[in-house]
Design brief:
Blueprint lengths: L4 H11 L3 H14 L6 H11 L10 H15 L21 E5 L4 E5 L3 H36 L3 H4 L4 H16 L17 H10 L1 H4 L9 H20 L6 H18 L4
Antiparallel strand pairs: 1-2
Amino acid sequence: MKKLLPLRKKLAEEYDVSERTMRRRIADRWNEGGCTFSRRVAALSLATDKGINPAPYAAEEELEELRRLQSMLKTKPPPAPKAIVAKKRGKPAKVYELKLKKGLGNVPLNLTPAEMKNAEIMTDVYYHLYILENSLRQFILDVMSDNSGKDWWNEARIRKSTREKASSRREKEELNRWLDGSRGMHPIFYVDFEDYKAILMRHWSFFEPYFAQIDSPQSWVLTTLGEIALSRHNVAHMGFLGNDIRQKVLLNLRAWLRQIAVEK
């Protein structure tokens, strides 16, 4: 993996700021991306904004992550309406008395009625993404178990980083026993879309029969899961998706469920 220092120096020169300031800007871009990408990819994003060709500074997998980050930044929800922002420092934001669902009653809440309406809209998106991601996990679990045995997670070629991620998250969940609920018993429920795609591609011969009738099946799977992942990251960070993107989520869900339901 290429080092970040040369790129950071180049960015500091282009933006005409100190390296310390550049580190802060890279951290800000990393936060904009929901902390789901590496800081190096965040730096590459800033380079792209400045018209710098990122290729000399990046590995191929980083360029792919950069494309996803740039696409996600373009679809970020608009900033909060000015009406709810305090006009002067030290004054509280405007508060609305809103009746919440699920027996919460009337409570002071610094969100506009329009934003509360968005919350209702996004419940459907969460519902669809919940079904899709858990369906994907179960699909991978079933196919891998059928082809590599019940202990496939330990015996199949699963990336070390994927195993470590799942193990770390399970341990953290076990330490926080006050949490009511669990992601699932199997490690597959503790990893991300990039890990799902890696398992599918690395063991493609097991999954190919479900997609063989599609033109460029691997490309279809990667594209579909990539689109889902972008929407999922936005929703996971409590963002809002426009109508077109919400419809795309539903279409991807329908296409995915139909595809994996084909009898083999």
